[in-house]
Amino acid sequence: MRTFAAVALLCLLALIVPVQAADQITYISQPDEVYIFLNDVAFAYDTITLPGGVDVQIALPATVFETTLMLREDGQRVTSYRLRRDTGVMLEWATGAGDGAREVTLEYLMAGLSWTPRYDMTLNGDPADSADFSFFAEVTNAALELDTVTAHLIAGRVDLSQPVDDMARATVNQYIAGYDEAGAPAGGEVGAATIQYIYEPGSLTSEPGETLYQSLLQVALPVRRILLWNAETDPQVTVIYKLKNEANLPLAEGVVRNYQNGIFIGSDWMETTPVGSEGSITVGKLQDVRVNRSESQTALVGVFYSYQHQVELTLENFGAQPVTLDVVDRQRADAENLMFSAEPARETGNLLRWTVTLAPGEKQTIQYEFQTR
Q1: 87: left (phi over 0), alpha (psi -120 to 50) or beta
Q2: pLDDT score recorded for residue 4
Q3: How many CB atoms are located within 10 Å of the residue 129 CB?
Q4: pLDDT digits over 128-168, tens only?
C-alpha cells in the first residue's frame, strides 16, 4: 500500500499531465500483486491511499483489458468513472468527499506478462532408476515495471479465442441451474480461465523487456524406463521414462530437457503431472535393437472373404544386455478370423500388445494373420 502527499506526487505529474488544481492527483498504476497465466495474460491488483474530495487521474498499463477494470474505494465499487485514451489509457474519477484518507484498489487483466515452466532432467545411470529434476519458472515481462511485486504463477490459461460478448449464450449447466436471459452478462474482451494450480515464487522485480528465471523445485525423483515399439508407425524402439512425482508440487505441462552421461539427449513434452502420479518423457530411440514390420496380402477366389493378410513383426537385439520391451500394433477394424503365433493383450482402440524379452544376439518374430471381405 502506498500513501501519497501532494509534494511527492508532483514528480509523477510531469510524466503524464501538469497539475491543473491543488486538489488533483495523478498516479501511474504499479501493481502490488500479480497473478500470471501461461498465455500472456495477468491479473493485477494495485492498492493506494488517497485523500478524499480530489480529482484523480491514474495511468493504466497500455496493455490493459479495459472492460475488466474494477475500481473500489474503501471496499465499495466506485459508481462513476471514465477512461480517456488520448494519452495512453487514463482512468479518471473524483474520490468521495471528506477529509479522511481513502483506500483505493484497482483490479484488471492485462497482456504482456506470462510465464512458462522449464524442466531439466538428468538421468542417473543407463538405464536409470532415479533422476535429478529441476523446475524453473521463466517469467517474461513485456508490459511494465515490477518493483518487489508479490507474484503468483497460475498453471492455466485465459481463453482469448472466445471472448465473452454482449450476446453470450447460457451453457447447459446454466439452464439446469435456472437462467434468466434478461440478465445476460455484460460484454468483455476475454473468456473463461482454466486454473490447475497456483505456484508461489515470492516477490519479483523486473523491467519491461526482461525475462526472469525463478527456481520452484530441485529434487531427485524415481524413474522407470519403458521400451516401446509402435509397429504401426515407428521404425525404431522408443525409450520412454516414467517420472514419479514424489515432490510437494504438481508439475504443469511443459518441455523437459533431458541429460545423461553429461550430454544433452533431447527434449520432450510432459503432460500435467499431479503429486503421486507419473509423467511420460521420451528421451530417444534404442539403437541396439532393430525392428521391422511387414505385411503381405493374397487375393482369395471362390470364398466368402476377398483377401488373406499376413503380418510379421521382427525384433533382433544387437546389444550386450538383455532387453524387455512392449510391442504394439493396431488391428484393422475390418479384420476377421485372426490367428496369432503369440496371443496379444487386447486394449482399447484395437491395440494389440505383446511383451518381449530379447537376450543378447537373439532374434524373435511375431506373426499373425487375418481375413477381410
Answers
A1: beta
A2: 40
A3: 12
A4: 999 999 999 999 999 999 999 999 999 999 887 766 444 44
How many angstroms separate the CA atoms of 231 and 292, rounded?
8
Question: pTM (2 decimals)?
Answer: 0.79
CATH T-level fold of 289-372: Immunoglobulin-like (2.60.40)
Neighbours of 184 (CB within 10 A): 15
Neighbours of 360 (CB within 10 A): 12
Grid cell, residue 24, equals: 488533483
- Report pLDDT digits (tens) over 240-299: 999 999 999 999 999 999 999 999 999 999 999 999 999 999 999 999 999 999 999 999
DSSP character at residue 172:
H
**C-alpha dihedral sign at 253, 258, 264, 268:** negative
Sign of the alpha-carbon dihedral angle for 71, 77, 78, 83: positive
Which helix (H) or strand (E) covers residue 174, if one does? helix 172-177
- Residue type at 168? A
Measure the N-to-C terminal CA separation of the chain; round to a whole number of Å.
77
Q: Where are the domains of the chain?
A: 2-31+44-110, 112-143+211-286, 289-372
CATH number of 2-31+44-110: 2.60.40
